[in-house]
Amino acid sequence: MIVYRELKKSIMSGAFKLGSELKLRSVAEARGTSLMPVCDAMWRLVGERALEMRPSRTIAIPVLSADQFLGNSCNPPLA
User: Fold this and answer.
1) CA-to-CA distance for 60 and 75, rounded, in angstroms?
2) Cα angle at 34 between 32 and 36, to 5 degrees?
3) Taking a C-beta distance cutoff of 8 angstroms, is the pair 19, 60 a contact?
4) Could you give phi then psi for residue 52, rounded to 5 degrees?
5) Per-residue pLDDT tens for 53-72?
6) Residues with Cβ < 8 Å from 58, sequence gap 6 or more?
7) In 3-state terms, what secondary structure has residue 66?
8) Can you give the pLDDT at residue 60?
9) pTM for this one?
10) Alpha-carbon dihedral of residues 8, 44, 30, 10, nearest 10 degrees?
11) Alpha helices, DSSP H only, in the chain?
12) What is the predicted pLDDT for the residue at 1?
């Protein structure tokens, strides 16, 4: 839970460049922890859409469009 909160705070504060890939081992080493809590935190953040899973199975910081950032992606235009 601590790794999750720290990672989420880092993402929200802009500590990672948009579109950059996060490596489990690098994040674990930077936080002084093992891979398992980092893996759990990343999967949780993927579920919350704070991170994205790419087709190559890498995890990255998403690049949002203006509509996504403003929350308009849930409200498609009416036909």
Assistant:
1) 25
2) 140
3) yes
4) -125, 145
5) 999 889 999 987 666 666 65
6) 21
7) helix
8) 96
9) 0.78
10) -10
11) 2-12, 24-31, 35-47, 66-70
12) 82
Closest CA to 11 of 60, 77, 55: 60
Q: What is the helix (H) or strand (E) element at residue 52, kind and residue range?
A: strand 52-53
Close Cβ partners of 28 (under 8 Å, ≥ 6 residues apart): 34, 35, 37, 38
Q: Nearest CA to 17 among 58, 59, 63, 53?
A: 63
In this prediction, the residues of the chain whose per-residue pLDDT falls under 50 are: none
51/47 Cα distance (integer angstroms) = 8
The size of the chain, in residues, is: 79
* Residue labelled with tokens 């403003």: 70
pLDDT of 39:
95
